[in-house]
Design goal:
There is one protein chain. The protein has 80 residues and is an alpha+beta fold. It has a single domain, classed as Pemi-like Protein 1, Chain: D, CATH 2.10.260. 19% of the residues lie in helices and 25% in strands. The chain is built from two helices and four strands; from the N terminus they run E-E-H-E-E-H. The strands form two sheets. It has a two-stranded antiparallel ribbon with strand order 1-2. A two-stranded antiparallel ribbon has the order 3-4. Strand 3 and strand 4 form a beta hairpin.
Length: 80
């Protein structure tokens, strides 16, 4: 897919084809992160620092998950 760098006021930009936006799951008005890697510009969706943590914690404490206390006596004092 090709695109052309265009002038937008005093700046420059690239118009992204709708198909490219759909494949990348991006939409108009959405904030993105720009990163330059070697001679390539990478555009990715902006992610919140703790995005997905709530669901991960729910899964971690769900019934049937690993018991990290398995084999550790619960009735012993830790300070002795």
């Amino acid at each position: 897919m090709d695109a052309k760098v265009i002038r937008i006021g005093n700046s420059q930009g690239v118009r992204l084809p709708r198909a490219a936006l759909q494949q990348a799951r991006l939409s108009a008005g959405q904030r993105v992160r720009l990163e330059v890697v070697a001679d390539t510009i990478v555009i990715s969706p902006e992610r919140k620092a703790r995005e997905g943590w709530k669901e991960a914690f729910k899964r971690a404490g769900a019934p049937g998950t690993e018991d990290l206390w398995e084999g550790v006596p619960h009735d012993e004092a830790w300070d002795e």
